[in-house]
Amino acid sequence: MPASKKLRQAEINRKTKETDIKIKIDLDGTGKNKIDTGIGFFDHMLTAFSKHGFMDLDCTVKGDLKVDGHHSVEDCGIVLGEAIKKALGDKAGISRYGYFILPMDEALVLCSIDLCDRPFLGFDYEYKVPMIGELDTELVKEFFYAVSYSAGMNLHIKVLSDGNAHHVTEAMFKAFAKALDMAVSKDARINGVLSTKGAL
């Protein structure tokens, strides 16, 4: 099979005493998804990520929600990051960088990504409310931190215009989706990986 036609899919199962998570991703999908994390607003955000990033995503999370949502959300980020990294393989031919500025009503969010295998999260926002539906707002940063570190991703999220917490968070997830879609896209001009070091 030609390199350009390789399937960029991955399936990761991770089970601990706190969570049981199964994620399957197709980076070259159309946005089909089946999401069940037990946290309604988090389901909504992952659905938006899949749809707007054109990535097929199946995600099932069984977590200790009787404690709180922390383990479910953080561990989901770990597994999603692992799935993205596995699906990318050797990263040959990918654009590597992606960025997007996304409006959501009054909110405006910037997201920038480098798939360089040097993990870092820059998260420039402080929530003014503790919860959005059943999601603890402190967990939004925890999720993106977990994704960035398990995927080996330099990820920056910056809120340029503040507003309703639902709008801001949805803009984050959609901007992340669009930036990641750009970063994983293939560029025929790239021979191997886009790095002067010859490795990502």
3D architecture notes:
- With 200 residues, the protein is an alpha+beta fold.
- Helices cover 34% and strands 30% of the residues.
- It has four helices and ten strands, in the order E-E-E-H-E-H-E-E-E-E-E-H-E-H.
- The strands form three sheets. It has a four-stranded mixed β-sheet, covered by helices on one side. It has a four-stranded mixed β-sheet with strand order 5-6-10-7. A two-stranded antiparallel sheet has the order 8-9.
- A hairpin with a 2-residue loop joins strand 5 and strand 6 (107-114).
- Helix 2 (70-88) runs parallel beside helix 3 (138-151).
- The protein is globular and about 50 Å long.
- The mean pLDDT is 96.
The number of helical runs is: 4
Q: What is the percentage of strand-forming residues?
A: 25-35%
Number of E-type strands: 10
Amino-to-carboxy terminus distance = 23 Å
**Spans of at least 5 consecutive residues with low confidence:** none
Provide the spatial order of strands within the biggest beta sheet.
1-2-4-3
Spatial extent as radius of gyration: 16 Å
In helices, the fraction of residues equals: 25-40%
Structural class based on helices, strands and sheet pairing: alpha+beta
- SSE arrangement, N to C: EEEHEHEEEEEHEH
Mean pLDDT: 96
Shape: globular
Q: How many strands, what sense, and barrel or not for the largest sheet?
A: 4 strands, mixed
